[in-house]
Amino acid sequence: MKRSFQKLLLSSAVTAMCGCSSVMSHTGGGELGYYPGTRASYKMLKDDETSWGMKPLVALDMPFTAVMDTVLIPWDAFRTDKSIKSRVEESESKNLATNSAIPPAS
């Protein structure tokens, strides 16, 4: 009984960790194209600003992220980026263009 609980706990932990970068990239928006989670993990591994404690976790998660990105290829093929972040960035760029075209009143 105790052995089966340990296996269940371990498999639950592995499942919970699977594809963290992929899930974050797909729900956060901004990353378009195929395999956004794998690209994000690769960038984190190559970045000098990533802490030494985070790099092993990213390296451990990278194969699971690649598998999750592969499963989500149909989603990537048909999605449009309408996340809150992308809508705010689009609105800010429109406002910036409007503000630069209209000089401030003195």
Which terms would index this structure?
mainly alpha, 6 helices
Report on this model:
The chain is mainly α and 106 residues long. The chain is elongated, with a radius of gyration of 20 Å. The relative contact order is 0.14. It has helices spanning 2-17, 20-28, 36-46, 54-71, 73-78, 84-101. The model has no long low-confidence stretch (mean pLDDT 79). It has six helices and no strands. α2 packs across α3 (36-46) and α3 runs antiparallel to α4. The chain has one domain (18-93).
Question: Helices and strands in order, then pairings?
Answer:
Elements (H helix, E strand, L loop, with lengths): L1 H16 L2 H9 L7 H11 L7 H18 L1 H6 L5 H18 L5
What structural class do helix, strand and pairing data support?
A: mainly alpha
- The N- and C-terminal alpha carbons lie at a distance of 78 Å
Content of β-strand:
under 5%
Average of pLDDT: 79
User: Topology as H/E string?
Assistant: HHHHHH
Quickly count the helices: 6
Which residues form runs of ≥5 with pLDDT under 50?
A: none
The structural domain count equals: 1
What's the β-strand tally? 0
3D shape: elongated
The Rg value, from CA coordinates, equals: 20 Å
Main sheet specs? none
Bin the helical content: over 70%
Protein name: YceK/YidQ family lipoprotein
Keywords: Lipoprotein, Signal
InterPro entries: DUF1375
Signal peptide: 1-25
